Each structure stands twice: as C-alpha cells, then as structure tokens.
Structure prediction request, 542 residues.
Amino acid sequence: MKLLCVFSVLCMFSFIHTSGFWQQDRPQDPKLRKLLSKADSLQNINPDSSFFYSQKALTAASLPKDISEANQYIGRYYIQKEDFGKALSYFLSALKIEEVRNDERRIADIFDDLGNIYVIMEKFDKALVYNNKSLLTSQKLKDTLGIAKSLSHIGVLHLSREFCQTRTNDEKAKDYTIAIGYFNKSLELSKKIGNEIGVAKNNVNLGNAYNKLGQPEKALQMITKSLEYYKKVDDWNGITETLSNLGQVYNRLKQYQKAIGCFSQCIAEGKKRNLTQGIQYVYEAMSQTYDNAKDYKHARDSYVKYMIIRDSIYNSEKSKQIFELDAQYQAEKKKKEILRLTVAKRNRELFIYILALVVIVLIFIYLNIQNKRKITQQALDIKEQKIFQMEKDRQLVATQSVLQGEEAERSRMARDLHDGLGGLLSGVKLSLSNMKGNMVLSTGSLEKFDHALSLLDTSIRELRRVAHNMMPGALVNFGLREALSDFCSSINNNTIHLNFQFFGVEKRIDPSFEINTFRIAQELINNALKHSNSTELMIQLI
Prediction:
C-alpha cells in the first residue's frame, strides 16, 4: 500500500498562503484594501467568506493591480476547493496583468501559486519550472522573504518527487538530502528576518525529511516544536498539518496508537474547520498504520475511504482541463510573439533585398524551433499518459488482490466445512448407527432414532452442497469444463434441462480466470432459472 506521507500533508495544508508568512503591497483605495485584507485573513479560517470579499473586490476594482490581486485570491480559493482548472484560469489572468505592468514581485508570487498547483497534481517538472522562476525573480529583487518561501517549496518538491516519478532507493535518499539543504537555507533566512511561521513550517518539513531518512527521533523533536507554536497562536491550519506529520513519525517509531490518535484528531479537526484539502492521503497513512499494527479490518476501511475520496476529487477530466488552460495561455504568448515578429518583418521590408533574405532565414529558424518544441511537448504528453495508465494499473492490481483474497477465503471455508464439520457429522452418524445395532429400542423410539439419522444425512448433504458452491472441488482439481458440467448436471430435474456444450482445446488456464469465469456462469444460470420460466437452458463454453 503506497504511503504518501509527506506529500499528502503538504498538499493538504502547506501550500495555502497565510497572511503571516508573506506580505505584499496593498492597493491605495481604502475600500479595496479593506476587502482584500479580509479576503487574505479569512483564506484558511473561512474560505467561503474569503471568496465573497475577493469577488466584491474584483467587481469594485478598476486599476490593473487591484484586479490582478483579486483574481489571485479567487484562484487560491479554488485550490482549496480542489477545482484546479478554475484556479489556474484566475492565476493566468493575474499573470497577464502583471506582465504588462512589469511588477516582478507580483509575478514571482503568481509563479509560486502556479507551481503549487502542479505540486498537488504530482507533476514534478512543471512545478519545478514555476518554483525556479519564482526563486530567480525573488533573488533578483533581493526579497529575503520571497527567497525563503521559494526555497521551502522547492525543498518540498524534491521531498515528494517519488510520488511524481519512479525513483530508486538511492535516488530517493538523494532527493531527501537535497530537500534538507533547501529547508535549512529557508530556515536560516526565516530566522534572520524573524518570520516565526516560516521557522515552524521549515521545522515540519525537516522533520518529514529526517523521518523518511530513517531518523524519526530527530524528526519528532522538530515537529513537536512546530506543533507547540501553532497551538500557541491558535493556527488550526498549521495544527492539522503538523498532527498528520506527527502521526507519520509515530508510525515509523512503531507507536501505532499514538499515530492513529494523531491522524484521527487531524481528520476530525480538519472536517470541523473545513480544512479537508488532501484529507484522502491522511486516510491512506492511517490505513498503513493500522496494517502495521495488524488491525486489518480498520486498515481496509481507511483505505476504502482514501480511494473513494481520491477518485471523487481527481480525475482525468480535471487534469485535461488544467493542461488545456495552461496551453491556451502559452499559445496566447506565442501569438503575441508572432505578431511582434510580423510587425518587425513589415518594417524590415523597407530595407534592401539582402536584409529581407536574412529575415526569411530567421523565419525558417523560428519555425524549426517551434517544430522541436512541439515534438518535445508531444513526448511529455506521452509520458504523462503513461503515468496515468500506471495509476490505473495499480488500482486494477488492488481490485484483483481483493478478489483473490475473497476466493482464498471461500476455499478455506469450503475445506473447513467439508473436511472438518462434514467429517465430524459423518462420525456422529457412524457412532449412532453402531449404537442402534447394540441397543434394544421400542417401535416409537426406533422411528425417532431413524428420523434422527435421516436428519443427519440431510445435514451432511446440505453441508457438502454449501461447501461445493463456495469452491467446487472439480474446479480446483479438474478445471473449468468439468466444474461447469458438474454444476449443470446437479441442477437438471424434471422441470428444466441444462444442456452444457464445450468447444475448443481442453486445457487448464489461469486459476483466477477459471474462478471468475465459473462465478459469472454460475450467476447467469441462477438468474435464468429464477426469472426466465424456461424448460431448457443451453450453456456453451468456447
């Protein structure tokens, strides 16, 4: 069972910006400033109220910067609502405005938001591109807070890389070490500027990294410090995040009850305060903990909740919508570039023919570059499709495992009934028959005795019938053809005739395939007997 220990929690809580972790310039209009301040402060406390104030600000805004900032807050609301397509649309709208305004500080912040979307979607390369853009812009501006935030997010990306790409154990260890380097740099800058929330977040991330490296004792100290801080400032977003991470550490320390307690509290408080983004991964971590504690019933129940929530939240249509929006934005940028080149070409046509020839050569070079980019994008799309197919295959394997487990349990119960209880009842009958030969009974008692033996015979036949239905011996020993033939023969009577026919080469096939085919045929025959009112039924195995 795959355990998304760090990535799940970071997706659930860490990537939602909080007003204490970063600051930015506010619009000069006092009314808009008040609306956007409320939207900022309510992002994690009451997302719906934050969305309400952001919408009011967007409606009232007239200056480009105010419109851009309102769009960005609405985008963050849709991240919390798991609607990444709408979130991306609002972020791109904000980015277009800031690119015209050339406000690099705002551009860096929006790049960070775009990177967060792809982190949640487990797209490592795309997330890294946007996070690096954000880091480079913040470094250019010498924005210490922005640099610390970008370093932390890049560290998280490397820490969760194993869930985006296939990694060997050595590569995973290298990724965790790289992540620790980024977190330490971010922690140092956060301490330097007195950013307590940044210190707390980096301690949680470092704890996760050390836990993955097999150093849970060190991780426990760091994560416990962060939890104390979040409780002190009553930050439930941080509390729930840290509780889930703390559960991962206790799981590695084999303190399973403490781990389950942390996960349960995380889920309860998250639901209570509407902090449910990524909650499916907490259920997955809880399932793994129950499994380690050998509590398989609760492990199964938790894993079922994880699968239900994950399948309802994320599907291929959402992924397609997001990438279409991203592609549309890139296409618009390319159109602007093509338009600029076209205008430049018209101006250059006034010059001599030699210069015109140079322009033609440049156009051919440009088209060649575009073609290469298209080929590269196609290769990336194929890779993403393969990853999607691998996820489908993993779900199929999980389903097959459940079915195999059910059939194994049927076989075990059939053997126990036939060999255990059946043998016991046969022994009882034999003992009673021996007693009958050695006893002098009255006519009434003899009839009751014979009636008791008859009931035993009936019980033994019924037990063997139940055991046979659960796992026919002919299916196990002789294969699908013999099992279906026996099943049809057992049903034949004066009211209905089952005609079984076999075509093809007689040979044994995969046991799981034989079992599933037999169950399907058995269900079809039972349905026909129950509903058709026919006198003859034909079954063909080809």
